[in-house]
């Protein structure tokens, strides 16, 4: 249903209640209109907030995005695979994101930009994902999915980011949109051309994926593996210091 269809029905419903205001008790007509209004509202809410009716207040909701190299990737470019995972408490929690990607060149020292793009459409390599997801019509890098730059280490990007501004819930949900990793670094709006304020001049699209709701398994498994490799690194660091 379009917004105008909704407005029309709502106007009808409100008009119905106004007409009968002069009467003392609600008429059956008034009740019917109220009923319609509440049904239309429920319907509209369920269209706007697809997650609202499966999540309880405070419940953790998870989403995942299975990264695949662009089908238009040129030879010799890194074949990036892995996942981008999301966790957020319904409905107002801060979003956390795990980025767990591999396939980068071991020798390259190239930082890569990662963004949420507007469409969950992978039909034309990663090009059908459109531009940056930009629900508030602002300039780059203030889009909710402007995650910034990531420098691969040992051919991987493994990072957990907290307090991300994007949300899975409500009309500006990023669910069913896409994550794109680019060939180049994001200039974060500081480039000297108009594209800088649209996309950060991050270059070609190496790999992309569609974001969908998931269960907690992958998040828990990945965050545990991150924690244990951090412990190992710390232990190694300590051993090196003591040596
Ligand atoms: Cu992008
Ligand atoms: Zn952006």
UniProtKB/TrEMBL annotation:
Q: Name one GO molecular function term.
A: superoxide dismutase activity
Domain Superoxide dismutase copper/zinc binding stretches:
80-211
* Region of interest: Disordered: 224-243
Catalytic reaction equation(s): 2 superoxide + 2 H(+) = H2O2 + O2
Zinc listed as a keyword? yes
* Residues of the signal peptide: 1-22
Gene3D superfamilies linked: Superoxide dismutase, copper/zinc binding domain (2.60.40.200)
Question: What is its biological role?
Answer: Destroys radicals which are normally produced within the cells and which are toxic to biological systems.
Q: What is this protein called?
A: Superoxide dismutase [Cu-Zn]
Native species: Acipenser oxyrinchus oxyrinchus
């Amino acid at each position: 249903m379009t917004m105008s269809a909704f407005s029309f029905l709502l106007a009808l419903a409100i008009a119905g209640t106004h007409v009968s205001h002069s009467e003392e008790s609600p008429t059956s007509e008034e009740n019917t209109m109220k009923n319609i209004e509440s049904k239309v509202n429920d319907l509209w809410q369920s269209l706007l907030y697809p997650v609202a009716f499966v999540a309880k207040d405070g419940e953790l909701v998870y989403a995942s995005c299975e990264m695949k190299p662009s089908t238009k990737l040129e030879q010799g470019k890194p074949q990036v695979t892995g996942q981008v995972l999301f966790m957020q408490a319904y409905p107002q929690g801060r979003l956390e994101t795990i980025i767990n990607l591999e396939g980068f060149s071991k020798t390259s020292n190239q930082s890569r930009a990662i963004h949420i793009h507007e469409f969950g459409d992978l039909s034309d390599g990663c090009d059908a994902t459109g531009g940056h997801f930009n629900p508030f019509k602002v300039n780059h890098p203030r889009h909710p999915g402007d995650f910034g730059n990531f420098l691969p280490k040992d051919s991987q990007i493994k990072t957990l980011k907290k307090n991300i501004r994007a949300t899975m819930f409500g009309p500006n949900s990023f669910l069913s949109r896409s994550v794109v990793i680019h060939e180049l670094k994001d200039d974060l709006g500081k480039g000297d051309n108009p594209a800088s304020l649209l996309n950060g001049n991050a270059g070609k699209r190496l790999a992309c994926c569609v974001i969908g709701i998931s269960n907690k398994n992958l998040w828990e498994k990945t965050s545990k593996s991150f924690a244990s490799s951090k412990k190992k690194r710390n232990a190694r660091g300590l051993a090196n210091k003591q040596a």
